[in-house]
Amino acid sequence: MLTDRHILLVVSGSIAAYKALELVRLLRKAGATVTAILTAGGARFVTREALAGLTGQRVHDDLWAAEAEIGHIRLARLPDLVLVAPASADLLARMAQGLADDLATTVLLATRAPVLVAPAMNPAMWEHPATRDNMARLAARGVRVVGPGVGAMAEPESGPGRLAEPEEILAAVAALLAPPAAPPAAPSVERALNQPLAGRHALVTAGPTHEPIDPVRYIANRSSGRQGYAIAAALAALGARVTLVSGPTALPDPPGLVTCRIESAREMLAACEAALPAEIAVMAAAVADWRVARAAGQKMKKEPGAGAPVLEMALNPDILATIARHAMRPRLVIGFAAETEQVVAHAIEKRRRKGCDWIVANDVSGEVMGGARNTVHIVTAEGVEDWPELPKDEVATRLAARIAARLGGADRAARP
Ligand code: CTP
Fold first, then answer.
1. Which of 33, 122, 396, 410 is the most exposed place for a label (fewest CB within 10 A)?
2. Which atom of ligand 1 is nearest to the CA of 322?
3. Nearest to 5 by CA among 171, 241, 178, 164
4. Catalytic residue flag (residue 221)
5. Would you state the pLDDT for residue 1?
């Protein structure tokens, strides 16, 4: 996934810095070369020896020593991506100011590589107007963010500020570094007519998510991914640059677009956020609403006489609702509603609740999940369109054409 990619990992001062070690392991397993910069704060939580051991490289922690050996400009030019994980409130503030008062900030100022930050701090610090301002400034400069999550912190406090899990950070890195989709063919009058979505970026999710119980077991659903893949291909056929974020499926990567494969709902959200900005988002994935609260690190064993385990579940993030309310909200956000009763009524309510523009509603009580045909209803602010039963490819082609028609008009109108 990340073969031949070079990641410069900045580890700053947060108690979550220990997770950077697992992150290095995952990045290297995915094929990346990792060079680490450890800030003075970061060194309070992890040792340079541990980072050096895991990266297999010397760790840089001193501006002047680095200057003597390699120079901050060379260090800044090395990577395909600079990843700050964990990113402390202080480091984010210094980045927002454009300071260059240590090796990390100097390299961050000197690099032309994309920058991804994974914030980690106390909820009150994350919600402080100063941090909000700093994040807005960094986002305006193109810095990407993964997390933070909501959950229990080291202190007896809960709220947003928890470092994203290493798997989520890996998914965001993979989405950011995904190779660009095949360049469009040479311009021609015919292409301009047939490719109304040329130059637009579309984000599509597809397939199920797998929520781990332990390293060998997971919770999933019956989604095959076919409808989402067909929509991704149909949008690409109209000229869009498509990022397909897919859960585990048996389908091959569609040609001519970028497919980013993830497993869990939280990884899917991280990959989607990293893929923004986009003008179109079609969320066709059957995302698991719940995950196992504490997946076991080792395979769960049957204990004689202990009976069956009871799994405690936790709510997964709602990816559609998050993207629909995102600071970089795509112009047209489309969700799906898989229903087994009162299909249209539930879809109308879901459109409002999730904050999306359209809902494609379908009845999944029959053979739809995994099947080749689908009967859908398009729910928009203007009303409901009932489409006949169609092959999934045909639903995709019609939906892509409807998106192209609406976005063509939306260039003149304020909102789709
Ligand atoms: N979805 C999502 N993230 C979730 C759950 C759903 O992004 N955690 C998206 C799906 O991709 C789809 C839409 O939300 O576009 C509706 O999915 P559906 O499963 O029908 O809705 P739920 O949110 O599960 O609502 P309910 O439980 O009321 O059916």
1. 410
2. 7
3. 178
4. yes
5. 82
